[in-house]
From TrEMBL:
This is PROTEASE M14 CARBOXYPEPTIDASE. PROSITE patterns: CARBOXYPEPT_ZN_1, CARBOXYPEPT_ZN_2, PEPTIDASE_M14. Residues 64-338 form the Peptidase M14 domain. InterPro entries: CARBOXYPEPT_ZN_1, CARBOXYPEPT_ZN_2, Peptidase_M14, Peptidase_M14_domain. One of its GO terms (biological process) is peptide metabolic process. Belongs to the peptidase M14 family. CDD domains: M14_CP_plant (cd18172). Residues 1-21 form the signal peptide. Residues 408-430 are annotated as: Disordered.
Amino acid sequence: MKLFFFFSLLVFFLYFSSSTARGPLHSSLPSGIRNGSRISFSDSVRRQLFQDKQSKLSDDRAKGYMTNSDLEKAVKEFGRRCSNISRIYSIGKSVHGVPLWVIEISDMPGEEEPEPAFKFVGNVHGDEPVGRELLLHLANWICDNYMKDSLARLIVENIHLHILPSMNPDGYFLRRRGNANNIDLNRDFPDQFFPVNNDINARQPETRAVMNWLREMQFAASASLHGGALVANYPWDGTEDKRRNYYACPDDDTFRFMASIYSHSHHNMSLSKEFPGGITNGAFWYPIYGGMQDWNYIHAGCFELTLEISDNKWPNANELPTLWEYNKMSLLNLAASLVKTGIHGRIFSSDSGMPLPGSVTIKGINYTVKAGKGFADYHRLLAPGERYEVCGHYAWVQTKNHTYLTGRSSHDSGLYSRSRGHNQGEPAKY
């Protein structure tokens, strides 16, 4: 059976002229590992914070921030006001039963399309609430501007954007980092090096909700928003020997590119003296284990960044408008880069025209991107300016390889390709 692969090479060029935000250094290893050796803990406390040194923030500090009730009302009001480009749904509930609301933004919300999906996740740590505020600003800005702003329109028409403002509403209510069980949710995911988080019965409901979300929906890329530093963090977050050093994942160049999009679109992140260019490899900063970022990349095919968006974990509410302005273009450009770079296409049968389950790989990069189930569409992020040899796979059949130079179309490939320069319904033959 002959297979055709639709490739669309769309490249986004940018010209670019110690903190404890991800968690206390002493608790960066899961609770069952310390100083390189195994120690015994009961399942009920193994991912609990070693000690809650941070006292609860005063209610005065929370003034001007949305309560959980306020957030729910804001999300539902957004759904009513912007119903033509959005839907509201919940991926589960917190320990205390608070719904984990998600806003989906698209010109066809809730419908499956051969388009990539991007997600933003805020408030992973309860005492880092800036992200939840900024993500509501982002949703409302897109709704207010997509008819008149080209970047907002590009996102609405070409991406399914999903926004989870608060992954940890209980921690927010309690004014502390962990959830209602005092578990750090960014240490609660299965880890590639250590098995301490493999017991699903000990996993927190918020963590399970996110994991089930990614089993049901295929995301090409993602970012979680944190506070306590100013840097874009990328995989890997941990090292096999538990030492602090640069530990690159297979897509290191692509992740550096993604992190640089955020950093250089930001007001001053790229000017950091602590982090060159405002980006960092997580393990080089300091290793953590059980993090959400690495799990996304390994198990869900999702390229996720950890964004530290404010030096102060819980700044005064009167600083929120400034923080929004500092981060607005970063959030927009990162989401939009999903369709402005990389290789995008579909796998289907030339005999029947039916989509076929398959995947694509890049020569020299040990990572496989699976095609979607409905349309067999794939969205493979890549750093621009390099020549890549792309290989498509269907079941046990491997097609011939094709080479592309990102940054320009490859006119000698003999493939059918779809780009934004052609009518959407007509493939352009190169």
